[in-house]
Design brief:
By secondary structure, this protein is an alpha/beta fold. Helix content is 21%, strand content 30%.
């Protein structure tokens, strides 16, 4: 294998290139990216960068003297597997021997009335974050539509900046994948910090004055005054360019456990676009849109791309993700969205630090913790091959380092 092409010049793509070089690849590497920037990290976009405690250059990922050909600001438009070429928007083709797809996602648009008014934002890339930061500096009232991770993080950041924040979602609670029990905690947290939280209601229209958004009309007939609006409605996979390629899209690029696409052993995928069998999900192809998974996928895909398919290693690490909101560091492991119920396992007497299990039957499928970073490594080891929940409880009862020890750790 002489030429490795990586489509997607963000975290996963960068880690793939670095990993391939570390593993000894001395042939060509071409990095194709939709954005004109060198790779940067995205978590600060809704937090430090937005609040002004970090600048644009601080978001850059360390590239060093990585020997690659950069094709930035030129998105891929099609994949020709028969000729082994990636077609680019500038009309050129990039031939490959092996290909890694790491094109990630873009913000899901809203096309209702008023969507194109000035002052209406999405948040997915660096330009989005800079534009939203400038808007918040001259705004007093921010409306956020969508109480997922991005919406909740921006709400926390905006409250720290002193803005009046209204957070709207059609769901019954914020951070929907965590379920209603934890959702009540997240809702209380935001209300305690002064967020006007409107749940079970959507946006009917955005209304402007002189071409700029000034208020929103909700589906329950109420209105909200706003100087700026953030549409945080989730994401859309950047897989349009793969239409007609013959790769299986469901909706991500379907791969085996080694990140090799099931349709082509010379093509691998990494990060948000990769649908990979997950043991905690009973082996179902699962996509994970989180920073740690993108980094791990990239590192593994870069190594595996150099090997024959039979010699490639599987990705088996349980997913991990985090979210910083106010004074709470929320960390999660595994698949909380698949849980039937939540069981509190550890908690300090003050209730400011805790760990809960996400359970189906008696099987632990995930872990959620708040301000409990030192406890998470133990749980991540458990999730590699989850023991019965009763065994976890027994081990915790004898653990002097558990939160709340020596008092009873469970709720």
């Amino acid at each position: 294998m002489r030429r490795l092409v990586i489509v997607g010049a963000s975290l996963g793509g960068l880690r793939a290139a670095q990993s391939a070089r570390t593993a000894g690849h001395d042939g060509g590497i071409v990095m194709v990216g939709r954005e004109s920037h060198l790779p940067y990290t995205r978590p600060p976009l809704s937090k430090e960068l937005l609040k002004g405690t970090q600048e644009i250059e601080d978001s850059a990922l360390a590239v060093g003297e990585l020997d690659v050909e950069w094709r930035l600001g030129v998105p891929a438009t099609a994949l020709d597997r028969e000729r082994r070429r990636v077609h680019l928007a500038d009309g050129t083709d990039v031939p490959y021997d092996r290909l890694i797809i790491a094109t990630g996602c873009r913000a899901r648009p809203w096309t209702g009335p008023g969507a194109t008014l000035a002052g209406v934002h999405t948040l997915r890339d660096l330009e989005d974050a800079v534009a939203l930061r400038e808007a918040l500096r001259s705004s007093g009232r921010l409306l956020i539509v969508g109480a997922g991770f991005i919406g909740c993080e921006v709400a926390a950041s905006a409250r720290e900046l002193g803005l009046d924040v209204t957070l709207v979602d059609i769901a019954a609670h914020p951070l929907l994948p965590f379920g209603p029990e934890l959702g009540e905690r997240w809702a209380a947290m935001h209300r305690d910090h002064g967020v006007d939280l409107r749940l079970g209601v959507g946006i009917a229209a955005l209304v402007g004055r002189d071409g700029r958004v000034s208020r929103a009309e909700l589906t329950d007939g109420t209105t909200i005054e706003a100087d700026a609006v953030l549409l945080a409605l989730g994401s859309v996979l950047n897989t349009d360019w793969l239409a007609g390629s013959g790769l299986e899209l469901n909706p991500g690029v379907v791969c085996d456990a080694t990140l090799t696409t099931v349709a082509d052993p010379d093509i691998l995928a990494a990060g948000d676009v990769a649908a990979v069998p997950l043991a905690l999900a009973a082996g179902a192809p699962t996509r994970v849109e989180h920073w740690t998974t993108a980094a791990e996928h990239g590192q593994l895909a870069g190594r595996n791309a150099l090997l024959d398919p039979a010699d490639r290693s599987a990705h088996t690490t349980p997913p991990y993700f985090w979210s910083d909101q106010y004074d709470a560091k929320i960390q999660a492991l595994g698949c909380p969205a698949l849980a039937e119920r939540i069981e509190l396992l550890e908690q300090t007497p003050e209730g400011d630090r805790w760990v809960a299990a996400c359970v189906a039957g008696e099987r632990m499928l995930g872990i959620v913790g708040v301000n409990a970073a030192r406890r998470l490594p133990w749980y991540r080891r458990q999730l590699t091959s989850p023991p019965p929940l009763a065994q976890v409880r027994d081990e915790l009862a004898a653990d002097p380092k558990r939160l709340g020890a020596p008092a009873e750790a469970s709720a």
